[in-house]
Design goal:
It comes from Streptomyces parvulus. By secondary structure, the protein is an alpha/beta fold. 50% of the residues lie in helices and 17% in strands. The chain is globular, with a radius of gyration of 19 Å. It starts with a strand and ends with a helix.
Length: 284
């Protein structure tokens, strides 16, 4: 499916591009809009990796209308074509981009039943060697951009009395990983945010799911500046995380680990932090 690029009205300093579907795609969206069973989802970080896998998995189910966003318009268009989705390329760290995306999604699908916040970046190396601007980038993309977007999408869900926010975390945020201090801190913030927000939303009909993947076979490691060299845990395909997201949404689960055994080190750290630290210092 071919998409045409058009630039929407943008606030100063923002970079956003809407990818509008062709006439046939638009007609199918109109047909779906008449089916009240169709749900709507907004997926961030959908250019590649986990976000792209989630978009494709939801599309496979056939009852989702999707709006996808990511920073790479070329790759995003490819994913949108595969998922028969509408795409909006944007850098959500730029002023006003989150509002543009939200307005675009609401204008396209009318409301958002599901938000999957999958955008994220990492950086590997000792903290003292980390450039200050990279510290800002990791926190802006993983934490601030996510919180701002949730803040914009959530009121509609609460007003409707239904919906779900899925936050893609990381094992690094649950147990902390050497040479990933800022990334670990950012993902720990996402986990705490998920718990606190879930308490606030109790009784509203809106759920919050925290997905905690381990090592996932995506371009993430290439972009963080260092490849993954450990023998354990082994990387899992992003489709496995996408399956976990789909199942968590269907079952209304609060927290999911991928793979499931990763819950064990988190429990050890919580129950016996001294023992965990000794083991982590020895085995990394």
């Amino acid at each position: 499916m071919v998409h045409a690029f058009s630039r929407p009205r943008s606030a100063p300093g923002t970079a956003a591009v809407a990818l509008d579907a062709d006439h046939a795609h638009t007609r199918r969206r109109s047909d779906r809009a008449r089916d009240t069973r169709i749900r709507t989802a907004l997926v961030t970080g959908a250019s590649s990796g986990i976000g792209a896998a989630v978009a494709r998995r939801l599309a496979d189910e056939g009852d989702w209308r999707l709006v996808l966003t990511g920073r790479d318009p070329v790759r995003l268009r490819e994913v949108a074509d595969d998922a028969s989705a509408t795409a909006f390329a944007a850098d959500l760290t730029l002023p006003g981009a989150d509002r543009q995306l939200t307005d675009f999604a609401l204008a396209t699908v009318g409301h958002v039943d599901l938000l999957v916040a999958g955008a994220g970046v990492g950086w590997a190396g000792e903290f003292l060697d980390m450039p200050p601007h990279t510290v800002d980038d990791v926190l802006d993309i993983n934490v601030l951009a996510t919180l701002r977007l949730v803040r914009l999408v959530l009121p509609g869900m609460v007003a409707a009395g239904s919906g779900r926010v899925v936050l893609i975390g990381s094992l690094a945020g649950s147990v902390a990983v050497r040479d990933e201090a800022v990334y670990s801190a950012a993902k720990a913030a996402i986990g705490a945010f998920a718990d606190a927000l879930r308490y606030e939303l109790r009784g509203t009909g809106v759920g919050v799911t925290h997905v905690v993947p381990g090592v996932v076979d995506t371009p993430f490691f290439e972009r963080r500046g260092a490849p993954y060299r450990r023998s354990r845990p082994r990387p899992v395909p992003p489709e496995r995380v996408a399956d976990a997201v789909r199942d968590a949404v269907a079952r209304g689960r609060d927290e999911v680990y991928v793979p499931a055994w990763l819950r064990l080190p988190c429990r050890v750290r919580g129950a016996a932090p001294g023992l965990y630290r000794r083991l982590a210092a020895r085995f990394g």
